[in-house]
């Protein structure tokens, strides 16, 4: 009986152990996640049956090797590599204006514009460039962060190849002499303006002349007639000869503080009569005073560079009065004031411009004919005329009364004249010129100009008119 009880207890214990063991196994199966449940089978990955030890074949990716583009051609000048030479370029020309830091800008039209070309200080030093040089070369367009075009290579300087550029003289060191060769202005029988100027106030190569004019006296027409006479008698195309016996005369019109419509008129006239060889440097009256003065300074430097080459240059400046007024506003005040509120400091730059005219000994010449305004009602204008009255060696006075009577040219014969005129007329014609002066002095002021015009219309040329004076 006891053995049966013991057997039952053992069986119960063993069954309880089995139940606990099964529960623990079930617990483990629930808690532990199945391993590799998220991975694919070997068949799905390698395409072989499970359990196979063979590795799949390794397929190497095919890499295409693209050859590098050829290096852009390098522009080498004198063992120096010019940067950006592979960019599209364009041949440009302009007048050099050098800044204080040494670099410069090529200005196509003497004044600032969006077509200005930057030139580095190293190129300026290498070629010994000067303000006013006409530079030509290949330039590239401005980049995104740049303002101006960039000059890559200097090819021409004042229309000469760089290789042909030799040692240049300095304008300030050239020897100035009296004008001894006349610029003939007369062209046709009916062109009375130029015929009268040749007789009354002749212009020589290297002359420093003043055209003194009140308002509405025909000053602009007088300037255009002078331009036409010079362009026809001394064309800058190799057919005409200047005072130095070389090709033609280079014409320049410098307009300071002018009206825009008159600028257009002069530009078209110069382009027409000179076949595009002449130059016009202009500034309007609504521009800043510094811009007006800078245009005049750059034009003068351009003329000096041509004279250094031995050329004859004629500048017609309109006007000295407005140039001095612009300097009066552009320059810092000196603390002193003359009549009409004019600062004396403003006189020196204008006089420096006018005083640059001279005949160079055995070389070229720079002729400057400037206009000066009088009888404008401004005391400042009268002061400017008085300051410049003794600086020129030729004066041509216009009279408003004659212009109001429609007598053109309205030249005051008695007050107009040229210093050392015997050097221009020559010994043969000088006695007849003296006779003409004495004849005109015997006539009243109101009839003097009209009588001379009437006598000139009866002859074909001035030479014929002078010859006829012998019988008077």
What do these coordinates show?
- By secondary structure, the protein is an alpha/beta fold.
- The chain has 2 domains: 75-165, Beta Barrel (OB fold (Dihydrolipoamide Acetyltransferase, E2P)), CATH 2.40.50; 176-471, Rossmann fold.
- The chain is built from 15 helices and 17 strands.
- The chain has helices at 2-31, 42-46, 121-126, 192-200, 219-233, 260-273, 289-308, 320-330, 347-354, 379-388, 400-404, 422-425, 430-441, 445-457, 462-468; strands spanning 75-77, 80-82, 89-98, 104-107, 117-119, 134-140, 149-157, 160-161, 176-177, 208-213, 249-258, 279-284, 312-318, 358-360, 365-373, 394-397, 417-418.
- The strands form 3 sheets. Strands 9, 10, 11, 12, 13, 14, 15, 16 and 17 form a 9-stranded mixed beta sheet that branches. Strands 3-4-5-7-6 form a 5-stranded mixed beta barrel.
- The chain is elongated.
* pLDDT < 50 runs, ≥5 residues: 27-32
Structural class: alpha/beta
CATH architecture annotation name of the largest domain: 3-Layer(aba) Sandwich
- What is the molecular shape? elongated
Rounded radius of gyration (Å): 45 Å
The rounded distance between the terminal residues' Cα atoms is 190 Å
Find the CATH superfamily of the largest domain. P-loop containing nucleotide triphosphate hydrolases
At CATH level 3, the topology of the largest domain is: Rossmann fold
Mean pLDDT: 82
What fraction of residues sit in β-strands? Answer: 15-25%
Main sheet properties: 9 strands, mixed
In total, the number of strands is 17
Number of domains: 2
Name of the top-level CATH class of the largest domain:
Alpha Beta
Counting DSSP H or I runs of 4 or more residues, the number of helices is 15
**Helix percentage:** 25-40%
């Amino acid at each position: 009986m006891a053995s049966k009880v013991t057997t039952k207890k053992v069986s119960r214990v063993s069954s309880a152990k089995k139940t606990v063991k099964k529960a623990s196994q079930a617990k483990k199966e629930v808690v532990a996640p199945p391993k590799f449940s998220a991975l694919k089978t070997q068949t799905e990955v390698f395409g072989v049956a499970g359990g196979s030890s063979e590795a799949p074949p390794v397929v190497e990716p095919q890499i295409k090797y693209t050859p590098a583009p050829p290096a852009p051609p390098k522009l080498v000048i004198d063992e120096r590599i010019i940067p950006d030479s592979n960019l599209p370029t364009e041949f440009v020309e302009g007048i050099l204006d050098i800044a204080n830091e040494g670099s410069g800008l090529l200005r196509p039209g003497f004044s600032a514009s969006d077509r200005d070309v930057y030139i580095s200080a190293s190129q300026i030093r290498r070629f010994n460039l000067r303000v006013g040089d006409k530079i030509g070369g290949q330039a590239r367009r401005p980049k995104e962060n740049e303002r101006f075009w960039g000059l890559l290579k200097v090819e021409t300087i004042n229309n000469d190849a760089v290789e042909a550029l030799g040692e240049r003289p300095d304008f300030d060191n050239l020897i100035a002499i009296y004008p001894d060769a006349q610029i003939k202005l007369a062209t046709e029988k009916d062109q009375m303006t130029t015929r009268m100027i040749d007789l009354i106030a002749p212009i020589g190569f290297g002359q420093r002349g003043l055209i003194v004019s009140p308002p509405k006296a025909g000053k602009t027409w007088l300037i255009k007639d002078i331009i036409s006479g010079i362009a026809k008698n001394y064309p800058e195309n190799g057919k005409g000869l200047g005072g130095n016996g070389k090709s033609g005369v280079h014409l320049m019109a410098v307009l300071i503080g002018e009206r825009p419509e008159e600028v257009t008129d002069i530009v078209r006239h110069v382009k027409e009569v000179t076949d595009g060889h002449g130059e016009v440097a202009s500034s309007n009256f609504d521009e800043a005073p510094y811009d007006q003065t800078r245009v005049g300074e750059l034009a003068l430097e351009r003329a000096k560079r041509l004279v250094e080459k031995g050329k004859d240059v004629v500048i017609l400046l309109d006007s000295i009065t407005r140039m001095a007024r612009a300097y009066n506003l552009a320059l810092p005040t000196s603390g002193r004031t003359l009549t009409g509120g004019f600062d004396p400091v403003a006189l020196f730059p204008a006089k420096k411009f006018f005083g640059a005219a001279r005949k160079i000994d055995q070389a070229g010449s720079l002729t400057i004919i400037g206009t000066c305004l009088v009888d404008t009602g401004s005391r400042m204008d009268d002061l400017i005329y008085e300051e410049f009255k003794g600086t020129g060696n030729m004066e041509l006075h216009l009279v408003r009364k004659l212009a109001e009577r429609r007598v053109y040219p309205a030249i005051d014969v008695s007050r107009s004249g040229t210093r050392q005129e015997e050097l221009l007329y020559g010994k043969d014609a000088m006695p007849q010129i003296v006779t003409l002066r004495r004849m005109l002095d015997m006539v009243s002021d109101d009839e003097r100009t009209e009588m001379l015009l009437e006598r000139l219309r009866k002859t074909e040329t001035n030479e014929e008119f002078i010859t006829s004076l012998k019988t008077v």
